[in-house]
Amino acid sequence: MGIPWAVDAKEAYEIDSDVDKGHVTLEKSGSEIKVFGVGDPNSYLPVGARKAQGRLPKNYHKNLQAAKENDSGASLESDSMDSLEPDQAGWYSLCCPIEKVPSFDTMELENLFIQAGSPVKIHMTDRWLFVRYKERETVEKALEIFGNDFSLRPASKKSNKSTDLSGEDKKKGQKVEKKSSGPASKKYQKDVCKSASSRAVDENSKSQINGEKVNGYESNGVIQENGIGKHQKVKDLSKSLFVNGICDKALFLKLIEPYKPLHTKFVAVSKDRSRFGLWYGFVEMQTVEEAKKVITDLNRKQLGDKYIIVDYDTPKESKPDKSKKDSKGSVNEKTENQAKQNKANEKSSQKALPNPEFLDMPPLVHESAYVQNPDYYKDCTVFIGNFPANTTLFALQDAFSKYHIKDIIIAVNNFSEGCTKAFLYLSSIMDVIHCVEEMNGFTLQGYHLKVDVPYKNEKMRHVLKKRLQLKTQEESASLNKPKPPYSAGFKGTHL
Question: Does pTM top 0.70 for this prediction?
């Protein structure tokens, strides 16, 4: 019997065949003996091997499919590219974990990702960085350039899959549709919808809304509630624009004037001192086309020394109506009791705090912007409040000049002109202590100043508290000090 063998000449093999038993033994020098069957397997295979005949290895089909995908050049990246869809404005989005981001500066990131093509938008959250391109070819090029370095991948919307594997059908690989069970399935749809977006409308209310929708919201539709038609006007998002980074209101009004907006509203920014002197803008356009044109023309446009950001306005979540009554005609007691409890907790927490008026002050910028040692200025910060709105920076410098001022920063009010809050960065801790002791309650232009250490600076507040306690003890000790006993002979001997 002739058996063809393809033996490598470089390796040392010893071949021994036994035609009677129908098997061939192939032995490689320095290795184990392997048996290759010829003819009937029952004549040479052991019992365990005979039982294994006809069974495929574990994950055989899965590994085979993966091998085919690797050979054909298909990958998970291509699958995700197939599911990539543009948003309503026509932009394609890529995302990467925030840990992989090379920089947190938006301008630097834009200059980096613009190498794949333009235009490009950068959006950063607590966990993800989103890079948006206008063309699909640009997205593929960006994946090719930055995909491996920053773990960049297409951002896809979450989908609610209605199929699952269960029971014995899991082993066979057959998909079984989930059975909806009335209220349970509606609750599941509602939870999934709310987890996708906090502003999304749940499935039950979606099925009851009629009329034209814009960005998933009803413009001027009728909502059926308990069988009664109720007219509800919702803000048309396609015409409402949000503008960030306005440093000059007059320049912005001149810039937006050619587009003929219906109305424009400005809101001052004061919570972040690094953005001092800026305003938010809310613009309502006449048509959808005008709104799109404004976004295309003015987004990332330089206005003064800042770049403005123009995008669609997103509505805030509507608060529940406390005056709404249930079917029995009585106010929901659970909601009312919860509101009372929250109000009581808020009052009790305010009583426990020494100076609650200082809690709502705007946060400081990072200390590294002023000095290499962040703790230096962090421990030497003084908050000043309740001074006149027309107070100038030079007036504050003159009033606090003897405390060795390093820097002064004034905060803008939310809805009033002028400034009534300021922060002083002093040279030493003793300057802070003397400043609080001497200037708290000081009268400036008819106003009594409030001078204190920021409440979040627990270290400095502890030092100041100990200092005031020691001073109070010394004053009380001097008042309670006993007088020397009166001597009758002292007066007589005194000339």
Answer: no
